[in-house]
């Protein structure tokens, strides 16, 4: 396979969907995948000290399981964005799983940190590829998810072994999504 550029798979965790008005970006993680092998070349992970901890959404926090202990000594948003921006080359394909929220929140974080968005406008939404793959193989069977699958369902369908209690940590999810991508690309 040849993606022409390395793939930067990015995931975020946040305290609710109304970032930045009411909620905070709490974690950014990424893995850089080789364009030919999809093997991990480099990773990044940081928590971010929240400015609006008191207004967090209980449902979001139940999913990401981020506690005050995990973020109280974390860098502020500006420092975290600068560090993330320096961590990877810019000539990559950005990839997100259900990319709209992650990309929107990350672009806003760059803006608030006063850091120029370093990537071009293209991005690869892994959800679309994963959905198409499962649809093609008649595996959109989940009754609990409007689309017929979620990430947990997908790892089960592809027989990927993981302790589900680790999921929704941004770096764990990046690595899991990378493994799903590798399996699907080998199957295509």
Tell me the structural class.
Answer: alpha/beta
Q: Which sequence of strands runs across the widest sheet?
A: 3-2-1-4-5
Q: What's the number of extended β-strand segments? A: 5
Q: For this entry, what is the oligomeric state of its chains?
A: single chain
Rg (CA only): 16 Å
Provide the domain count.
Answer: 1
Tell me about the largest β-sheet: 5 strands, mixed
Q: State the shape.
A: globular
Question: Could you walk me through the main structural features you see in this protein, from its secondary elements to its overall organization?
Answer:
This protein has one domain: Ribonuclease H-like superfamily/Ribonuclease H (Nucleotidyltransferase, domain 5, 2-Layer Sandwich), CATH 3.30.420.10. 39% of the residues lie in helices and 17% in strands. The chain contains 7 helices and 5 strands, in the order E-E-E-H-H-H-E-H-E-H-H-H. It has helices at residues 58-64, 68-71, 77-87, 99-113, 126-136, 151-157, 170-187, and strands at 7-14, 25-33, 40-47, 93-96, 123-125. A hairpin with a 6-residue loop joins strand 2 (25-33) and strand 3.
Key features of this structure:
single chain, 188 residues, alpha/beta, Nucleotidyltransferase, domain 5, five-stranded mixed β-sheet, 7 helices, 5 strands, 39% helix
């Amino acid at each position: 396979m040849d993606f022409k550029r390395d793939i930067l798979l990015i995931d975020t965790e946040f305290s609710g969907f109304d970032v930045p008005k009411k909620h905070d970006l709490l974690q950014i993680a990424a893995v850089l995948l080789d364009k030919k092998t999809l093997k991990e070349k480099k990773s990044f992970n940081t928590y971010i000290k929240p400015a609006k901890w008191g207004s967090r959404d209980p449902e979001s926090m139940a999913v990401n399981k981020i506690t005050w202990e995990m973020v109280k000594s974390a860098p502020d948003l500006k420092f975290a964005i600068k560090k993330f921006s320096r961590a990877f080359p810019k000539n990559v394909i950005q990839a997100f799983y259900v990319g709209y929220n992650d990309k929107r929140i990350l672009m806003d974080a760059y803006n608030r940190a006063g850091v120029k968005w370093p990537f071009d406008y293209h991005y690869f939404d892994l959800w679309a590829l994963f959905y198409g793959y499962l649809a093609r193989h008649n595996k959109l069977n989940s009754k609990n998810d409007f689309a017929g699958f979620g990430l947990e369902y997908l790892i089960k369908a592809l027989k990927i072994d993981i302790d589900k209690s680790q999921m929704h940590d941004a770096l764990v999810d990046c690595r899991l999504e990378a493994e799903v991508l590798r399996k699907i690309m080998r199957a295509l």
